[in-house]
Amino acid sequence: MAITKQYLKSKPVCKVTFTVPAEDATKVFVVGDFNNWNPKKGTLRKLKNGTFKGTMDLPKETSYEFRYLVDDTYINDADADGYKWNDYAGTENAVLAL
User: Fold this and answer.
1) pLDDT above 90 for 18
2) Whole-number Å distance between alpha carbons of 20 and 10
3) Which residues are CB-neighbours of 30 under 8 A, at least 6 positions away?
4) Which of these, 69, 60, 58, lies nearest to 94 by C-alpha position?
5) Shortest CA distance to 98 belongs to which of 3, 1, 2, 5?
6) How far apart are alpha carbons 12 and 80 in whole angstroms?
7) Number of domains in the chain
8) Tens digits of per-residue pLDDT, 23-61?
9) Which of 26, 3, 12, 15 is nearest to 55 (CA)?
10) Domain enclosing residue 86, as ranges
11) pTM
12) pLDDT at 51
């Protein structure tokens, strides 16, 4: 998994690209604070090499909790900026710091 960040000089946003290697998966979403945990707002597109990829513009100077939803299974990103316990989910969520 990989997260790349591109800070824009002209706007107070960061282009965040999420990449998930999941060759056997049929669908992958990124869900988190930034999209109200709604999979429909975080669909990643499957590439020919079997990875799923998507980019979002997110406000800078903020941190977000997020997870990937891979074929109905939640997973964290090993390359996240950190992890935070979430009592509601009963597990840790990945953290994205911008």
Assistant:
1) yes
2) 28
3) 18, 20, 42, 44, 54, 56, 66, 67, 68, 69
4) 69
5) 5
6) 21
7) 1
8) 999 999 999 999 999 999 999 999 999 999 999 999 999
9) 15
10) 2-97
11) 0.93
12) 97
Q: Apex CA 66: angle with CA 62 and CA 67, to 5°?
A: 160
Share of the chain above pLDDT 70, in %: 100
* pLDDT of amino acid 89: 81
d(CA 16, CA 58): 7
Find, among 72, 65, 14, the residue nearest to 37 by Cα. Answer: 65
Confidence at residue 42, expressed as pLDDT on a 0 to 100 scale? 97
Q: How far apart are CA 10 and CA 70, in angstroms?
A: 34
Take residue 14 and report the two structure tokens written for it.
């960061």
Domain harbouring 10, CATH code:
2.60.40.10
What is the model's pLDDT at position 1? Answer: 84
* Integer Cα distance of 17 and 64 in angstroms: 14
